[in-house]
User: What shape does this take?
Amino acid sequence: MNTAAYVTTDVFTSERFAGNPLAVIPDARGLSDEAMQKIATEFNYSETTFVLPAENPDNTARVRIFTPTKEIPFAGHPNVGTAFVLGQQAEIFGKAPGDRLIFEEKAGLVDVQLLRTGNDVSGAKIRAPGELQLGDTIADDLIARCIQVDPASIRHTTHAPTFASVGLAFAFAELDSLETLGKARPNAAIFAEAAALHKEDKTGFSLFLYTRTTEKPWHIRARMFAPLDNVTEDPATGSASAALGAYLTSLLPEGDIETQITIEQGVEMGRRSLIGVDVRKSGGIVTDVFLSGHCVSVMRGEVAL
Assistant: This one.
């Protein structure tokens, strides 16, 4: 019987059974696209990664990312978690891993810096591969019906609901309070209506909701729903956090600034996650977006093929 080794890790947490779980196939050589999709569907995590030799020998590896339903070009927690797993190995396809890794992905090259606690790899910091891109604004009523809240609870103080991306597009909306955020419940039928109306989000319609206070504007509480991709709710969404951080920084009046943002997600699911987002803006343009977080090893074994 053919098998493929796997490792799972909880990402954006230092506590096992919290954060966002990720399955990693550290050596996916010989697996077909169909097999990768079936394995990702079997794990049924928000994403599963498959690691292959890099096409350019100067890079560390090629990483493919699958949700339960499709392959996607980029995501945050899969990169942080995959780097954590590979950084603990003695070698990656014949080469010893250093503290800097470069992943080839459909969205481009992802630059990774391993984080250590003492001599042990404890997480990773990645640079988002794409530039900030904005899409259409979204009607308050549509957002409200997607999550079954009052349209009046959607804030416009900073921005209207809109799409943004630094590698993967999400719809973003700011809510008026933690209470409203906690009440949000996705309605898949309305998500399908939104996906038919808005084509920017290639995964269907993935909605990232957040709230913050004037006292602590850079400590953000968030939730993310993507029921059309079999992810009813995601405990930590790095790619969305990176896009939100980039977008909010782009709206600041300063032309040159660096922001440090903490995004707390997954609380309502009992899987609290802490996502670090660092954004650099120069000459009025967001130039760099970094995601960072800790990880914890959970399981390892073999998938029968």
The chain has two domains: 3-128+294-304, 133-291. The CA atoms of residues 53 and 61 lie 5 Å apart.
